[in-house]
Design a protein that fits this description.
Chain lengths: ~70, ~300
């Protein structure tokens, strides 16, 4: 908590800076979580496309004439 | 004479988005999305052609994505009026959590991805219907009707009614009378559902300048229309039995739910003033959601357990 004894700055200014730093940290955290969510979504879609492809091909790959 | 030197201004960086994952989920209107997914699943389940579970799962994920895209694009377009209404003021764009252009890009990407993927992975009939529902919701309802006519949700309801047809089409690559009956039930159900909300939120809509039925034609006329549309919905609820794709078990459930729905609409029609009138509208709004979920649920259960005729 700002005590007002931090150099010559008034307490309100110190509190503003603390709040800005806190907000920047929060924004960074939200951005990291967003990136993780996008990564997981992409991974899930890759799996989805893979399994749908396998289902649609069915036995056609295994039974193809050699 | 020397040419003045060409100067380029420093490109301005866009402010970093402060949106969380939750904000983007809210942007997809998850409640509306759940109704679309559920009714699509029922359309898929009662179709005469069984769909492979993996394909069915993929189709439902893509339908959810398409419904979410429509929600995001609607919030992008309506951000100005959302900020004026108590019910919608906490949405991510009015709150300043997501920028409008972010929402537009997100919605457009999801719309294109869901439609193309549904076409490639499942079939193009279902993909076309999904595209039609997104375009209808955004262009016909949100852009054209919502701010112009009290019939906005009557016609616009078609967008929300399409999911069971999409589900059916995902399984059969076609549209059929049975899927149209499911469409009709949701289409007729939409006006009483939203007009009940519009009655107890009429000041909200008035502030935003949206011409909902109670603000334009008056509450008495709206109450009458609610009763008529509810009656039509309840009668349409029996069509699956008449068309032979539902049994008497479903018919009994439809009768019981229909009686409840009509009772709620009747109370809205009769009780017109004070706190009780507000309560009647809220009850109708809530019961209408239960009605649709339970009616489609009964159809699904009956087919799932082979209890039909």
């Amino acid at each position: 908590m700002a005590s007002g004894l931090d150099g010559n700055r008034p307490p309100a200014e110190i509190e503003d800076k603390d709040a800005a730093a806190e907000e920047a940290e929060q924004a960074k955290r939200r951005k990291r979580l967003r990136s993780l969510a996008i990564a997981w979504a992409l991974f899930a879609l890759v799996l989805l496309f893979f399994f749908v492809t396998i289902v649609r091909l069915g036995g056609n790959v295994a039974n193809r004439p050699l | 004479m020397s040419e003045p030197p060409v100067t380029f201004s420093e490109p301005q960086a866009l402010p970093a988005s402060s949106a969380s994952v939750y904000d983007f989920i809210v942007l997809l209107k998850p409640t509306v999305m759940s109704l679309a997914v559920f009714t699509a699943a029922v359309g898929m389940a009662i179709a005469p052609v069984p769909l492979h579970p993996v394909l069915a799962f993929a189709a439902l994920i893509l339908i959810a994505m398409g419904a979410g895209a429509a929600g995001a694009l609607n919030m992008w377009y309506d951000a100005d009026i959302d900020a004026l209404m108590q019910r919608t003021a906490k949405r991510p764009i009015p709150r300043g959590r997501i920028r409008r252009e972010e929402a537009a890009a997100f919605g457009l990407f999801l719309a294109a991805f869901s439609v193309l993927s549904l076409g490639l992975l499942v079939n193009w009939v279902a993909a076309s219907l999904l595209a039609a529902s997104i375009v209808f919701y955004l262009v016909i309802y949100t852009h054209w009707l919502k701010r112009r006519t009290p019939l906005n949700i009557v016609i616009g309801g078609a967008a929300g009614a399409l999911p069971p047809m999409i589900g059916w089409a995902a399984a059969t690559s076609s549209v059929a009378w049975a899927s149209f009956v499911l469409f009709l039930i949701i289409f007729l159900w939409t006006p009483p559902h939203f007009w009940a909300l519009a009655l107890y939120r009429s000041r909200d809509y008035e502030r935003a300048g949206i011409p909902m039925m109670p603000n334009v034609r008056g509450t008495a006329h709206t109450r009458q229309q609610i009763l008529l549309y509810t009656l039509a919905t309840v009668l349409a609820g029996f069509l699956p039995v008449a068309f032979g794709f539902a049994g008497y078990g479903y018919g009994a459930v439809a009768a019981a739910l229909g009686a409840g729905f009509l009772f709620c609409a009747w109370r809205v029609y009769r009780v017109r003033e004070g706190f009780e009138a507000d309560r009647a509208c809220r009850l109708l709004f809530t019961f209408s959601i239960l009605y649709l979920f339970a009616l489609f649920g009964a159809l699904w259960v009956e087919h799932g357990f082979g209890l039909g005729r």
